[in-house]
Design brief:
With 355 residues, this protein is mainly beta. The protein contains 4 helices and 24 strands. A 4-stranded antiparallel sheet has the order 3-2-1-24. A 4-stranded antiparallel sheet has the order 4-5-6-7, with no helix packed on it. The chain has a 4-stranded antiparallel sheet with strand order 8-9-10-11, with no helix packed on it.
Length: 355
């Protein structure tokens, strides 16, 4: 079937598609004691810009103590940053030199309370929420429509602390009450407990969750046993544990194969082969997120490598037929909630147009 679909696209007259220049991808990290977003090299973790976004300077009306910026993601041409104490999400432009304030979603009466991590998938932003003030739903995932930047609903989730896309279009959510990693559909149906921890020998107070390039899940463990955990995505079994850090919050995989994690003491790299760590920056840090500078995101670049070519066609067809999808992508290309040949038509049209 896959060969037939690829052949159908080729017969349509498509010879090749235009390519983008390779985009500049960096790793952003939040330092919450000073409310600053820093930029790091996505391959090595080396600092690039230690004062890229200064939330305290941009929002001087409240004291430093009233803010705890937590999660950071890129949403198209914007940067969205969740704030646990301000009960909402900051929005900035994506600018390598001088990001500009766009606005703030939430706050007093704004429908969110005690928010944590967040992720972007198919035109929606999913925010981990805990409290009930401001009209918030309690332990739930709050759903924000990107086009209107307004809350469109929520669904219950077990004490969520972070949320990230699964390759099948669902969501992985860390649960600090049960010390588990759970899976939900984007409409709120509980699918399964990916990893069921006892909180004693396994992860306790799981914070950021990050899906590695090979599909394994990295989780930052905040409470004893403090460390970095690695789980099999399918079976949920614990593959590795590194007893490193102190109150760990964020975790990510670098391009050089090392892991990078944050704690109440700073940013550190971890060599998974030896367990050796190296301090990069001192401070109190939260979550990581990838930021891409350059042209606007291109839907036809389905595998996210910065080029539009037949590798994207191959990746889309595999995803369309129920196989593996690139991280954060689904075959619902037209975002109508269904996967059908309308999605194939939409992708082919975008693919032929190039970027």
């Amino acid at each position: 079937m896959k060969k037939m679909l690829v052949a159908m696209v080729a017969v349509s007259g498509l010879a090749c598609a235009s390519a983008n220049a390779q985009l500049d991808r960096v790793l952003a990290v939040i330092e919450s004691s000073t409310d600053v977003v820093m930029l790091l090299d996505a391959d090595t973790g080396a600092p690039i810009n230690l004062n890229w976004i200064n939330i305290q300077a941009d929002y001087p009306g409240t004291t430093n103590a009233s803010k705890t910026p937590k999660g950071i993601i890129q949403v198209g041409n914007e940067i969205w940053i969740s704030d646990q104490l301000r009960d909402g999400v900051y929005r900035y432009t994506v600018d390598e030199n001088a990001p500009q304030v766009i606005g703030f979603i939430g706050g007093t009466g704004g429908g969110m309370d005690n928010v944590r991590g967040l992720c972007h998938l198919n035109g929606k932003v999913y925010v981990a929420n805990s409290g009930t003030q401001n009209g918030a739903p309690g332990a739930a995932i709050v759903v924000i429509d990107v086009a209107t930047a307004t809350i469109e609903g929520s669904f219950p989730a077990l004490d969520p602390f972070d949320v990230t896309p699964a390759p099948n279009g669902n969501l992985y959510v860390t649960d600090i009450a049960g010390d588990n990693v759970n899976e939900y559909t984007t409409s709120g149906t509980f699918v399964r407990t990916v990893h069921d921890s006892d909180g004693v020998t396994g992860v306790d107070f799981p914070q950021q969750i990050h899906r590695r390039a090979n599909g394994n899940l990295l989780v930052a463990g905040f409470s004893a046993p403090i460390g970095v955990f690695e789980y099999d995505e399918v079976s949920g079994s614990q593959l590795n544990f590194w007893a490193v850090g102190n109150g760990n919050r964020g975790v990510w995989e670098l391009g050089n194969g090392l892991y990078i994690y944050t704690s109440s003491q700073g940013v550190f790299t971890l060599d998974p082969a030896t367990g050796a760590t190296q301090s990069l920056i001192a401070g109190g840090f939260q979550y990581f997120g990838i930021v891409t500078f350059g042209p606007p995101p291109c839907g036809a670049d389905f595998n996210g490598d910065g080029f539009v070519d037949f590798f994207d066609l191959d990746a889309f067809v595999e995803c369309f037929e129920g196989g593996a999808c690139p991280d954060g992508k689904t075959a619902d290309f037209n975002d109508d909630g269904f996967i059908d040949f309308f999605d194939l038509d939409a992708f082919v049209e975008a693919f032929e147009a190039g970027c």
